[in-house]
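FORM 7B - TANDEM STRUCTURE REPORT

SECTION 1: FIRST PROTEIN
SEQUENCE AND TOKENS:
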Amino acid sequence: MKKEFFNTTFTAFGLLSALTLALPCSNLAEVRDLVRIEDCYDGDTCRATSGERIRLACIDAPDRRGNPADQDRAVAARDRLRLIVVGKTVDLRRITMDRYGRTVGELFLNGMNIQQLMVVGGHAVILPRYAHQCPWSHVQVHHDGYEWYACLASYGVTATDWFPHF
């Protein structure tokens, strides 16, 4: 009887772990619109060719204005985001509008969540206050990001492909 309980518990734990790791790569049933990105102001704000301003949800990248010590990091974050999305058509999952009239949403390119890529690459951090808006950010907080490397690898991409060292 003990052995059956152990095997059942172990199997259930393994299944739960597998589902948790699969979450970041899954395509949740949600409405997404296609937008073409024209430019990125910084590491967490872009503009679509339609003129729509998009604030990437659940993350924060260094600001170009403000602390001079963050200027290099802010430019690096902006340049990385530009490299990934500018000139490309991406999926946008709209979440809300912010106080500046920007769309707050998640961007996806070929199934990969751009916010996750920015966090994994060290160009942004998760904003705990807004993490509830992005299911992947809960897993990130609890699993130290290892599953994002697994997610990228499932697409045949390594972290160094997206985020080479400067």
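SECTION 2: SECOND PROTEIN
SEQUENCE AND TOKENS:
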Amino acid sequence: LPRIAGLATVQLNFLVNTILASRLSEGSLAALNYAWLLMLLPQGIVAQAVATAAFPTFSELAARQEYPALRRIFSASLRLIWYWTLPAAIGLILFGEPLVRLLLERGRFTPASTQAVVWSLQFYALGLLAHAMVEILAPLFMPSMIPRRRSRSERRPCCSMSCSACS
């Protein structure tokens, strides 16, 4: 359920953006879609790969209730995502125009189209780090990993995992 909620929020956000862009000038919706796809490239390569590799370890450690080890693996996975995603976001912001020009600008895709995609891409790139973190955070808090009925003292490892990731 947390995974569904996290991904639903991302998709709902994109849906609202799409509805708003569809009311703008011609080409706005296409620019938004191209920018979204370009932002998803580093997110898919880095965050989904790390989350896919870490999930079995999360599950095993949670099943054995080895919370210190789970916290350590979670923190390392999150740092790895930050290490690769932050430079990717900065790269998309700084080099978005040459990238879009190289990949898309031909035929009916004009320099004005490039500017529209780059403008959207820069805003999407600002959220890339948070979007990538959803991939590692959502599986960690799956109900199968954290039992529903826990005492207050048993819930502390989960809270401290979230807090320790920030350090």
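SECTION 3: OBSERVATIONS ON SECOND PROTEIN
The chain is about 85% helix and 0% strand.
The radius of gyration is 19 Å.

SECTION 4: SIGNATURE
Preparer initials: ____
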